[in-house]
Amino acid sequence: MPTAAKIKQPLLAAALLGALAAPLLAQAEVRYSVQVITDMGANMGNTALAANGDIAGAAASDTVPYYQNSIFFYTAATRHVATFSASGWHLSSGEMNDNGVLVGTMRNQAGTTRGFVYDHGAVNYLADGTTANDINNAGVIAGSAGNKAATFANGTATLLSNSSGSAGAINNSGTVAGSIGDNGFVSQNGSINIISAGAVNHPMPFALSSDGALAGADRIDDGNGEPSAWMKVNGQLTYIPGLHKFSGGYALNEALGINALHQVVGYGLTADYTSHGFLYENGQTFDLNSLVDPSLKLEIFSAGGIDDRGQIVATACESLFSYSCSVIKLTPLSAVPEPETYALFMAGLGAVGLAARRRRQRAVVSTLA
């Protein structure tokens, strides 16, 4: 397991040396306007944000069986939300390209997986036994075929390795990142480079920027699989301080998105094990809840992506223990705000319930991805 020294926490000011064991978080200020995209229920899956402002994700309410959830798709140009589902299939959304084309994976109760492509209302499917996790502007898909990392072009799979694994991200230059066994990898021009190997930390990349920067989380071999978020820029691996420093140095956070400015978003647990979305930039970690108007009374539980303009897609609720969440978009106040910026009025998800669901969702994604 990582030691407290390994998680590179910011230095505490002398006046704060006696303050608990939590890392010093960056000074907060209201930096984002909030736009409600859609209220889709409790079990929010991965959310994706395209360069054109389109947003998508997977969701199901607690009253809907696990294998009957839906994918929602928000079109920024028309401000319209569409959904689709497939009877008997659980849908997991992947990522979108700059044209708003979404990929994802469906799984039935027999355990069969099938990648899909959702192109503004038209749905196409890959073969059984495939997953689809990301797509670039050229239409090349990163995913898996037969539990092996693969890319897909025009429906044809190209295996990246003969070992078990999955390709989780691809950018417009064709760089691919993912996992092979217990290790992360980056593939350029067909050449596989392992990010790290060893019995303790297994860095798994979950996001890839347009300039090749990576973000993800360690899988710590302590029997609990507690994560520590990291980013890798120009070959330099940097661990991201958590919202709270747990015993043993655990950060208990995961990085889910990174942009060309090398801003990273994801989620991390607080001292009371409530999940909060975070933003990491310039060596500092921010709780996203501290960067929006406090009068909105938001509970931002996780941030799924950030674009090169700094816009963030996130999941938020208003109160605990009522098991319903919604998708929001955060726009930097220095940019032109969306005209539909207003308070979020929704029910929330409790810390224990959300943490359990997030772990379940990550397990599903790990299996599919």
UniProtKB/TrEMBL annotation:
Pfam families: PEP-CTERM. InterPro entries: HAF_rpt, Ice-binding_C. It comes from the Bacteria. Residues 1-28 form the signal peptide. Residues 335-359 form the Ice-binding protein C-terminal domain. The keyword Signal applies. Keywords: Signal. NCBIfam families: HAF_rpt, PEP_CTERM. This is HAF family extracellular repeat protein. It comes from Duganella violaceipulchra.
